[in-house]
Amino acid sequence: MNILLLGYGKMGKIIGEIAESRGHSIAGKINIDNREDLDKLDPKSIDVAIEFSQPEAAFENISWSIQRQIPIVVGTTGWLEKKAEVEEMTLTNNGSFFYASNFSIGVNIFFKVNEFLSKLMNETDGYQVSVEEIHHTAKKDAPSGTAITLAEGIIKNLKSKSSWNLKGEQESSDQSVEITSKRIDPAPGTHIIKYESPIDDIEITHTAHSRQGFALGAVLVAEWIPSKKGVLSMDDFLSF
Ligand SMILES: NC(=O)c1ccc[n+]([C@@H]2O[C@H](COP(=O)([O-])OP(=O)(O)OC[C@H]3O[C@@H](n4cnc5c(N)ncnc54)[C@H](O)[C@@H]3O)[C@@H](O)[C@H]2O)c1
Ligand SMILES: O=C(O)C1=N[C@H](C(=O)O)CCC1
C-alpha cells in the first residue's frame, strides 16, 4: 500500500518504519512546515492516510483526506469537539474514517477489563473511583484521549457516575469520575483505574513501555481499512 503520513513527529516516524518493514511505501511525510507538499501529491495514488499530528491540525488534515476519498486512520487526540462534524462529512462523501484514542491492542484489552470491572462495582457501595494518566512532558492535551475513553467506559457501566472532570481544572462532584493528569518524562503512557475504600483498594494499570504498540496498531488498521466505508472504530476492527 501507498501510505500518506499526516504528522511526522514521534509517532509518524515509528509508524513509517513499521509500515516500510511490512512492505508498504510512504506517499508523503507531512509536518507543520511542509504542508504545501500535499498539493503536489496525486490523491489517486494514495491508499490510506495515517494522521498523528496535533489537536489544532487534525480537523483540517482529516477533511483534506475525506474530501479526496482517501481512507483515514486518526490517532491524534484533543480535537474531539469536531468529531461529530467529521462523522457527518464522512457519510456525505461516502468516505472511510477511523479514530481510536489508543491503537495499542493491550490498551484495548484494558478498556474491556475497565468496563467489566465498572459493571461489577455496581454490586457494592463505599468505593470511590478515579482515573490517573501519566505521559511525557511534550504532550499537548490533557487529559489523554485514553483517559477520556476509560472514564466514558466507567460512566457507561457504573450507575453512580454520569460525567468526568479533570482534577485542578474542572469542579468535581459525586457523580463525576475524576481524572488526574501527570506529566513526567519519558512516560509513553500509563493509565491507572482505582476504586478506593476505607477497607481496601482495587487498582488496574496499563503501562506502555514504548510507542511501538500504538504505531503497530495504527498500521494494522491502515492495512484493514481500504475495503471499508463509514465511521469506524476499534470495535469494528477487533473481534473481542
Ligand atoms: N491514538 C494513539 O494510539 C496515540 C498514540 C500516541 C500518540 N497519540 C497522539 O498522536 C498525536 C501525535 O503524537 P506525537 O507524539 O507524534 O507528537 P509530536 O509532537 O512528536 O508530532 C506531531 C507532529 O505533527 C506535526 N504537525 C503539526 N501541525 C501539522 C499539520 N497541520 N499537518 C501535518 N502535521 C502537523 C508537527 O510538525 C509534529 O511533527 C498526539 O495528539 C498524541 O496524543 C495517539
Ligand atoms: O503520547 C501521547 O500523546 C499519547 N497519546 C494518546 C492519548 O492521549 O491517550 C495515547 C497514548 C500516548
What do these coordinates show?
With 240 residues, the chain is of the alpha/beta class. It folds into two domains: 2-103 and 212-237, Rossmann fold (3-Layer(aba) Sandwich), CATH 3.40.50; 105-207, Dihydrodipicolinate Reductase, domain 2 (2-Layer Sandwich), CATH 3.30.360.10. The protein is built from seven helices and eleven strands. It has helices spanning 10-21, 55-67, 83-92, 105-120, 145-157, 212-224, 234-237; strands spanning 2-6, 25-30, 48-51, 72-74, 96-99, 128-135, 163-166, 176-183, 190-196, 201-207, 230-232. Strands 2-1-3-4-5-11 form a six-stranded parallel β-sheet, with helices on both faces. A five-stranded mixed β-sheet has the order 7-8-6-9-10, with helices on one face. It is elongated. The mean pLDDT is 97. Bound molecules: nicotinamide-adenine-dinucleotide and the ligand O=C(O)C1=N[C@H](C(=O)O)CCC1. Ligand LLHOTIJI is lined by residues 77, 101-102, 135, 139, 144-146, 189.
Structurally, the number of domains stands at 2
Mean pLDDT: 97
Give the tally of β-strands: 11
Distance linking N and C termini: 27 Å
In CATH terms, the superfamily of the largest domain is NAD(P)-binding Rossmann-like Domain
Major sheet size, sense and barrel closure: 6 strands, parallel
The largest beta-sheet arranges its strands as 2-1-3-4-5-11
Shape verdict: elongated
Q: Tell me the structural class.
A: alpha/beta
In helices, the fraction of residues equals: 25-40%
- CATH hierarchy: architecture of the largest domain: 3-Layer(aba) Sandwich
Class of the largest domain in CATH?
Alpha Beta
**How many H/I helices?**
7
User: What hetero molecules are bound to the protein chains?
Assistant: nicotinamide-adenine-dinucleotide, ligand LLHOTIJI
Q: Are there runs of 5+ residues with pLDDT below 50, and where?
A: none
Residue share in β-strands: 15-25%
Looking at the structure, the CATH topology of the largest domain is Rossmann fold
Rg from alpha-carbon coordinates: 19 Å
Series of secondary-structure elements, N-terminal to C-terminal: EHEEHEHEHEHEEEEHEH
GO cellular component, one term: cytosol
GO molecular function, one term: 4-hydroxy-tetrahydrodipicolinate reductase
Domain Dihydrodipicolinate reductase N-terminal: 1-103
Keywords: Amino-acid biosynthesis, Diaminopimelate biosynthesis, Lysine biosynthesis, NAD, NADP, Oxidoreductase
